[in-house]
Amino acid sequence: MLKLEARPDASKTMSVMSPVIALAITVVIGTILFMMLGKDPVRGLYVFFVEPLKSVYALTELAVKATPLILIALGLAVCFRSNVWNIGAEGQFIVGGIAAAGVAMTADKETGRWIVALVLLAGVFGGMAWAGIVAFLRDRFNANEILVSLMLVYVADQFLGYMVYGPWKDPAGFNFPQTITFLKSTNVPKLFTGFRVNIGLIIALLAVAAFWVLLFRTYAGFQLQVGGLAPAAARYAGFSSRRALWTALLLSGGMAGLAGALEVAGPLGQLTPYVPAGYGFAAIIVAYVGRLHPVGIVFSGVLMSMFYIGGELAQSRLGLPKSLTGVFQGLLLFTLLACDTLIHYRIRWQAARPAPKTTSIVASANTATTGKGA
Amino acid sequence: MESFALLLAATLNAGTVLAFAALGLLINERAGIVNLGAEGMMLVAAVAGYATAVHTGSDWIAFAGGAAAGALLAAAFGVLVIWLNTNQYATGLALSLFGAGFSAFVGIRYTQEKLTERPRFEVPYLSDIPFIGPALFKQHPMVYIAIALTVALAWFLYRSRAGLVLRSIGESPESAHALGYPVRRIRLMAVMVGGALCGVSGAYISVVYTPLWVEGMVAGKGWIALALTTFATWRPARVLLGAYLFGGVTMLQFHLQGEGVQIPSQFLTMMPYLATIVVLVLISRNATFIRVNMPASIGKPFFPGS
What we know:
The structure holds 2 protein chains of 2 kinds. Chain A is mostly helical. Chain A is built from 14 helices and 2 strands. In chain A, helix 1 (12-36) packs across helix 2 (41-49) and helix 11 runs parallel beside helix 13 (324-344). The radius of gyration of chain A is 24 Å and the shape is globular. Mean pLDDT of chain A is 90; it is low at 355-374. Helices cover 73% and strands 0% of the residues of chain B.
């Protein structure tokens, strides 16, 4: 019988290897899935893992989708590390986008490029405000942040619908539910002409550095993490759990809002009902697969972006539904969590029935010595 | 008056959806397990149920299909959280994300399918009573089964030995383990029964309530059901009451839209979600009250030292 045995210390190797093993298992399941659907699995995997890396254009598109994922996941990593369960980043992303659009639409022909800064700032504040509701209700009324943050996703989605079908609908838009196309001056500057990738990528990479410093080099980051790992110890040390709650939620809300603003004033260039693309939920997976570590999140963000592009390609090239992306994303998180068990436990083979008493003592003595040796 | 009877009938119907899921989650949480995967299980069960109904033409086999799908996913979740000690919140979330993707993927060919019209069920004699007859006694049999299930579950939890064991595991798995109860196996069973009930709820949505299959059609009902268990302070009768209350809010929204009330439809659609938040705030305000009523081991892993 297989048995789990607690490791004396958490395994650092396993902590890094676990996402790799999880990805391998997901690929194996994916291969089986392709075969069951009657598609060539080699072609299927090619579309997901090679095609998105093949050309310069493909690489820039990879960056376009990785940018919001990384930005949101950074904030969520702080949340999850401090044991605050914000799963409504999608809603904060939407509200950030709406706020950014509000500012972008005030621009006229004379407006200078400085307005981009305001657009992005509006996004940050929009996301913060939306997450702030969660923090307030948790702090003041003890309302479960998981459910509140998730309910607010549906509310934000409906609010977006109201804006684009109602007051903000483009009068010259043939009655389509969308705002006017924002003026050029409000668009987030692109990095290279001819490609969609913009300075959001630079912002994301700077944010990675900033979050690394915050988490591992500041006292505030230390306090947040202690609060998550050992609430009792944090209380004893006098670290405020309320401050941790607010910091984590405002930070993650702000990041999600920023991602929303970059999306709306970047690749989209207007507000439509299709602003929410699931980045807020996918970023939860990005945060976990990246080990809640800023640098890890860069890798997992790119990986998840590959899943997105692979899904689109699978639709156009293989005639498979785009939702394949969601299947693989969900599977990856599921297998990752299972593999993470290996960080704290190792698998041992043990006889199904307990052995006679004398041998069992010898056996336990043996495991004790090997345990020390390992 | 006529429209009020219709509203009442629709409320019972919508409440039934929530009742099955929330009663299932109640069983989970009474055993100390929170399954945030409810939404995902319901989505997959909705597809499974719909596909079964399309192919077999039987609602009852469809409910069984939905239950099986829910139980299967719940089993995967259960093995992870109970034996591999993974974080319950994260694992449930993974299940919800997977379920959303998987159901959309599998369901794509059923978006065009239609179910044949079902004969309406009527309780003999009682349905002829004016006003309340049509409202209360011309419902799908599952509406009455939900009520029966609530009574049965209340009896099971508070009057049977097995229910006592289940509750004791939810309060203190360590003590139950010390008394010799197979804590992990019982927890898995509770999780699977809970999953099956979420599955029934999902299948009811796609086969009876809507009836059709659209991607993401559960539309947060799984999450609302999760909030309902807290709202009901983990008591079956209150779960049913809460389910009807939320069913009422959902239906009031359609009702108002139908009456031509001058509120943008998006704000009306927000109502059930906002109501959930309001209710959570009201009930959670008193932290001690919640702590006293909540199964003590909820969300915490249990790893029996060998």
